[in-house]
Task: inverse folding
């Protein structure tokens, strides 16, 4: 019988489960070797933390260890039920707010080491966190893809710590369509992209008109697990800011408010790094929702979670 201690939070609606204790060691090596060990232990230890019956597929996990990058307070590997993520914006906000809740950090500026680079996070108050993400960029503009049963769609491919396809003019529109329609459509886009030369795309964003008076857009973000992001997605908003900046539609330092499909928001802006890259800043709020001990009982045939 194993006991795994976790602290749960949500960032603008999207859950993060931070693992505090009880999983196998990922060693003391650099973060790349920790990611390798994480992958080896994924099915037995990490995916079950996010799957039914203990959790649900929208949840993102965070493994943390002693830092291996200069100046960082932690190494972190974010993951969803499909595997590890490069970075996770809502997860970083949730991680920092959880560390504050546990009394491990005070308001101030911190560095966190992720598999795709060091990010900064400023704890402004116990719930409000501003992160500076990894360099983000627009890789390909106006990529057309023929989506079976829907027809052609045009969008940008951009990086914000994970890979995104940004469908600015989708057939199925956030704020108008149902969740089921948005999920089915964005899966169809992802499948078409993956089969037509873009295997790296694992997140798809659809955009529509905002509901919030201070927002510029409302999004729907399909995550690799097939679930949608309840928040506006930190890495997805970073990818979008990079795309808008490259298109000349956003100036450096200008605020951009991205509304989520559930009506929450992140405020973002960019610093121009040159060479077509920007460093996005994303600000949002997270609240702790629980601290629990999860039981892995080998006698339970569903101990490793439900997988269909
Ligand atoms: O906030 O970056 C994010 C994120 C990625 C996947 C789910 N949320």
Result:
């Amino acid at each position: 019988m194993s006991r795994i201690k976790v602290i749960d939070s949500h960032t603008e609606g999207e859950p993060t489960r931070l693992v505090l204790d009880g999983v196998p060691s990922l060693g003391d090596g650099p973060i790349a070797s920790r990611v390798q060990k994480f992958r080896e232990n994924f099915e037995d230890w990490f995916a079950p933390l996010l799957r039914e019956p203990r959790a649900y597929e929208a949840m993102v996990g965070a493994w943390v260890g002693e830092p291996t990058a200069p100046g960082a307070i932690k190494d972190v590997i974010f993951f969803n039920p499909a595997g590890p993520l490069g970075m996770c914006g809502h997860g970083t906000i949730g991680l920092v707010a959880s560390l504050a809740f546990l009394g491990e950090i005070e308001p101030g500026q911190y560095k966190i080491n992720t598999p795709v680079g060091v990010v900064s996070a400023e704890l402004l108050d116990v719930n409000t966190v501003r992160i500076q993400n990894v360099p983000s960029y627009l890789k390909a503009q106006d990529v057309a893809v023929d989506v079976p049963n829907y027809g052609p769609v045009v969008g940008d491919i951009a990086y914000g710590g994970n890979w995104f396809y940004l469908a600015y003019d989708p057939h199925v529109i956030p704020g108008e369509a149902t969740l089921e329609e948005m999920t089915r459509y964005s899966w169809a886009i992802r499948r078409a992209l993956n089969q037509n030369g873009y295997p790296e795309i694992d997140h798809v964003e659809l955009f529509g008109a905002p509901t919030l008076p201070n927002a510029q857009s409302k999004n729907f973000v399909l995550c690799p697990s097939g679930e949608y992001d309840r928040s506006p997605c930190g890495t997805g908003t970073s990818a979008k800011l990079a795309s808008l900046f490259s298109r000349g539609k956003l100036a450096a330092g200008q605020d951009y408010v991205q509304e989520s499909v559930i009506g929450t928001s992140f405020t973002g802006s960019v610093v121009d790094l040159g060479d077509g890259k920007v460093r996005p800043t994303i600000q949002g709020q997270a609240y702790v929702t629980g601290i629990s001990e999860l039981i892995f009982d080998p006698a339970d045939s569903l101990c490793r979670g439900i997988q269909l």
Observations:
- Residues 14, 60, 85, 88-90, 162, 223, 229, 231, 233-235 surround pyrrole-2-carboxylate (CB under 6 Å).
